[in-house]
């Protein structure tokens, strides 16, 4: 679809006949084809507009003639009209969804006469197409490929772009940067275990205590740290290519004042127990010695008493 309009200042003769302006006849002709024209009148000028539907066979430069007739006077002007077709380039990823390690063909094509630039393609002679092969890795998941086409029309460079996204299926992966192996928390603090697995589609991660009852430790959820959670956990990620595990150790530190208090209390209890035991032992010993002394005295009296 193309449009053309011509705004012509009327000559002095037409200005003097302004009252007759609505009587002016305006014709737009493209080459030898007369166009259906709409005219808008102003005080001392007019605007003629016509819409045309161009075909591919009509591409190129054609001459537009605008003629204004008032009475027996005519004025005309010529303009060049360029008819062109410039669709957006076609960018193809074959295939667009792949497993890691698959070779992907990236190709971009534009209309004749255009020059394409394909992001990631090796340098080559300018032309309407470009392509290259890509060995897909996890780093290419979500990668946006851009193809830009440029076409020169009547001295002006026009540009159009097309993008495509590549999806790579991979994983799961548990790495130190996403799931640290060692955690140290203070008892009574609020902490969050962060253990993320990489992969497409996103893997599911669960951390369970190693051995014992296999109780789980929440991930990405703030918890109150207690001594009971201290221990070793096995974090398991399940995804597209199966599952992987990673050992995670959680250490819980205690308040030093509480430790000293516990030690002092334990020492006091031990001391009291020792003292009590010593007191009871000495008391029993004295009782036995007293009874033994009384028995000796009784025997001595019997021996000294005459028959």
Automatic annotation (TrEMBL):
Matches recorded under SUPFAM superfamilies: Immunoglobulin
Gene Ontology cellular component list: plasma membrane
Molecular functions per Gene Ontology: integrin binding
InterPro entries: ICAM1_3_5_D2 (IPR048679), ICAM_VCAM (IPR047012), Ig-like_dom (IPR007110), Ig-like_dom_sf (IPR036179), Ig-like_fold (IPR013783)
Membrane as UniProt keyword: yes
UniProt entry keywords in alphabetical sequence: Membrane, Signal, Transmembrane, Transmembrane helix
Segments passing through the bilayer: 259-281
Entry annotated with the keyword NAD: no
All copies of domain Ig-like, residue ranges: 172-251
Alphabetical GO biological process terms: cell adhesion
Residues in the signal sequence: 1-26
Protein name as it appears in the record: Intercellular adhesion molecule 1
Lineage: Eukaryota, Metazoa, Chordata, Craniata, Vertebrata
